[in-house]
Design goal:
This protein is α+β, with helices and mostly antiparallel strands and 197 residues long. It has 4 helices and 8 strands. Among the domains are: 54 residues, no CATH class; 82 residues, no CATH class. Strands 5-6-7-8 form a 4-stranded antiparallel sheet. Strands 1-2 form a two-stranded antiparallel sheet.
Length: 197
């Protein structure tokens, strides 16, 4: 039989793909032992290149998709993160402030009138410092932050006369009908003095 590409040559093999008769010049032997013509070899090479290219493209797409699947924070995630940090900071601050030592609340002894007035003066000064140098409208505003809520303190507060004074800050004295000694004393933000009539 004659070669399909060289009719004046005898065929020595045939193409494993298209089964065309081939002469010695047209035979291409591939690694797996098959014999191919140059057209089928070209088609096989193109197929191989296409498959390698498609594998490469697929690999690149997979890598891109893989990158897109990695977590990237959105605005909502960032806001939630900032909110969580703020809660942690405020919680720590609250814990710190709750652990700081508060000045002890005052309990007034009612036996000595000077100690009674001095104890209330101390509570009034603490109140003024905490409220921009303003004294309370009532002595009961000192409870519970500046005076301890105790039976003794509440008893003492009932027997005191208290009024705000522009010049001296306040005037404080023990009521004459209270039965407690010291009705002749008056206290202000500066001192405790005998009552001048």
């Amino acid at each position: 039989m004659a070669c399909i590409y060289h009719p004046d040559h005898d065929s020595v093999a045939f193409c494993a793909k298209c089964e065309a008769d081939l002469c010695e010049d047209c035979v291409i032997r591939v690694e797996d032992g098959r014999t191919l013509c140059h057209r089928c070899m070209l088609a096989l090479s193109i197929e191989h290149v296409k498959s390698e290219t498609s594998i490469l493209i697929q690999t690149e797409e997979d890598e891109l998709v893989g990158l897109k699947r990695e977590w990237h924070p959105t605005y909502i995630h960032k806001i939630l993160l900032i909110g969580a940090l703020l809660v942690l900071v405020l919680g720590g601050l609250w814990f710190h402030l709750s652990q700081t030592e508060q000045p002890p609340q005052i309990t007034v002894e009612s036996r000595d009138p000077v100690e009674v007035l001095a104890g209330i003066q101390a509570a009034l000064e603490r109140y003024a410092v905490a409220h921009s140098n303003r004294y309370p409208d009532s002595l009961y505003d000192l409870l519970p932050g500046f005076l301890a809520v105790s039976w003794e303190n509440q008893r003492v507060l009932r027997y005191l006369e208290y009024e705000l004074d522009q010049r001296e800050g306040y005037r404080l004295r023990i009521q004459a009908d209270s039965g407690l000694p010291g009705a002749d004393l008056v206290a202000n933000s500066q001192d405790i003095n005998p009552l001048s009539e």
